[in-house]
Amino acid sequence: MLSIMVPGPLAMLQDMGVVGYQSAGFPQTGAADKDALRKANLLVGNAQNEACIEMVLMGITTYFTKAAVIAITGADIAPQLNWEPIPMNRAIAVKKGDTFTSSYAKSGCRAYFAIAGGFDVPRVMGSKSTNLKLKTGGFEGRKLRTGDLLPYQEISLPPETLAKRSIAAAPYDKQVTLRVVLGPQENAFTENGMNIFLSSEYLVDPNSDRMGIRLKGEAVESQNGTDIISDGIAYGSVQIPANGQPIILGADRQTTGGYVKIATVITRDMPKTAQLKPGDAVRFAAISVKEAQKLYKAYEKEMRALAKRFQ
Amino acid sequence: MSLVHILPAGDCALVVEFENKIAPEVNARVMQLCAAIKGSAIKGVVDFIPTFRSVLVSYDPLVISYNKLQKRLQKLSEIKSDAANNTARIFHIPVCYGGEFGEDIGDVAAHTGLSVDEVVAMHSEKPYLIYMLGFLPGFPYLGGLNEKLFTPRLPSPRTSIPAGSVGIGGEQTGIYPLASPGGWRLIGRTPLKPYDAKREEPILYAAGDYIKFDPVSETEYNKIEKAVQENTYTYTIEKRGT
Asked: In this prediction, does ipTM exceed 0.90?
């Protein structure tokens, strides 16, 4: 068991999310930073879609009742094992009785804690992701609390291979440019509105969460209002409500909505949105679908190479 | 047949848009396309969300490119098929109207000038088309509410509406599958669970199906509620047109 001693402000299980139920109104959920999730899993030899603990702004403190192999990716939470610093982005062998501590995220916003073999919790709609709003999935459908005991398989990896199980830290900047594919409703905006959207700097609002990153800045001007007949919302959709302030819709978004969507953040750049803190700055840059899909393929190729390296 | 617009929604999704209005014939084309997508099993299509007048299709760009999928879907949207109509089902939803289950039914009667019995009779008269599901798992956007029953929403929404509540909000009617805040006038409640994560089919019905509300007494309501809990309830599902 993984015994949670200090859960931090918001720690919960997330995997790649629910697939195939969006037509029924069931949200996708899943890790906010899928790049960090997949890499954490690869480091410990898991399938890339295994559930990890997603930790927001601060890491957990926890105790191991049996041996394990773990890895921490994402935001740098200065992890320690038995009060000795351990590296981020690397597979670490843990003994029975060890204590893991961590602190405030020095850079980035979300860190991921993977354990070899994965957490042994029931799947809801095929996923181990926590849905906080519906109170289902993950560990008892909620965020982790002090005293929680998370079951895991005791899986060891050959010690001599652990050292090579490491990756470079992802850089998390306080100013990011997010590449977007314009549309589907880019025609709903004035030329001026589109220029504002593509040239302004927006600041991340404290009300941002897993559902959406709310931005503050110059209002994006629409032609005839911002309401449309409700339609489906893609991961990364940039919605413009009546006040003209963009919202980037994330993992916990509703499946449908009635506001115009000016653009969609490309899959490759969505992990960056998960690492933004309130006050960080965002700019948007438009690229074609073709370019976006090229970047998508290049990333998947990198991930295949990484998986191969750890085999 | 009117024009179909296919637009990118990022690098992993696209949206197929039909006419820009809420109407059964437009929604029928949405359902036809969904049936055609299912039927043709296009490699790379991951998920799709049918809505009033469009379908959001998620796909894997490693398997199929935007251009290729766009062409396939353009063709599929132009084919007229009866597949959707043949698979539509009518789900009977027992509802106990009024009393503690539908405390606003008096408001609806007062606003519409009908008696409570007339409100119940009119509301449960004919099946409603499920245009789409959204907002909450299993929350149906229904079409076809009798104009005489149109009643404005509450001036200020309730912070929590019990699961299973059936209400009227403006020109719409529907079921709250989960406890949720909401501003609709509550006229009754169903003991069925439109959404249950533990059930093999977590959502009872799908977009394109129909819902028919059947009035039941409080005694029947309690009986059905017990049967649902014990997993012995038999759902009444008709095939449309039979």
From this structure: yes
